[in-house]
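Fold this complex.
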Amino acid sequence: MQGFTDAELVKKYLGGEQLALEELVRRYFKQVFFFAKTFVKQDQEAEDITQEAFVKAWKNLKKFDAEKKFKTWIFQITKNTCIDYLRKNKNMLSAESLEEQQMALSLEQMQDQEPLPEQLFDSQGFETQLEEILTGLPQSYRQTVTLRLQQDLSFAEIAEILNQPLNTVKSRYRRALLDIRQRLAPKNQ
Amino acid sequence: MNDSLIQQEKMLEMAVNKSLSRQPVPLSLENLFHKILSRIAAEAELKKLKAKLWVISAALAVTLGVLVLALAASFAAFSKTPSFQFLRLIFTDFKVVADNWQDYGFSILETLPLGVLAFLLSSILASFIVFDFAARQLGNFRKLLNAQHHGKF
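Structure:
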């Protein structure tokens, strides 16, 4: 089953091949888990959301549009499941408060940035520092960066998943990188 | 943005990507794949059971309707036949009944509305079978629902 595309696997499953579904789950469950983890703190919560997202996907597999990417579709379902979960658990941070969390950085500031010292990237403790910075990033930044760099999705796909305008996603991504740069800079310069 | 910043942004992207891919994989993630498949299997089972429950509900309704009909038909048939009057003789003329018990027995059998009686007994039997099946399916349904309630959703 490994040689088939996602759309072919969906078709095969709907045609009665159980193994096709297993392959789809195998392909995406870790990615879905890590994406869910950008919404919630606990691993257990992310696991529950991952399970629920796949169950929802399974229930709606007949409605899957083969013209679209399965990956984008499952991530959309995961995002909606995360929002439902957070609402249900009354942890939901409103869009406003999320924005408040974000640093008020303008893209213009990017122009004024001094390059980071070259040796910074090779310095000892850089990786640990970067990990800490990524963990501390505002949720929307972390999601955008994760989808772009870890999941290798295009800005258009990210915009579709997060249900945000394309330009918002692009600027959020750039702001996230700027945020990372700023957090890296003062500690190392 | 100058070239060195652009180049550095690429380096930063690479570093972030590397850092994200190094995220620690929780031990429980090894079981997650199987948990997802089990959950989907349970949902599929639940879906089948729900469909069965609809069929069972319909069967129960039909069986109960038939049972009521059978009871009404039996009541009407018994009221038209002299079976009850024969039965009453046991209490009023026991000695005569005892002396002629064979004739008495045949007379009762002859007056019994056997068709309606068979209809009543078979509908009672059918009701028992459907109730028993429904009880077992409901038990399975409850078990599955309880299993689902242990989850967060």
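Chain A has two domains: 6-88, 102-188.
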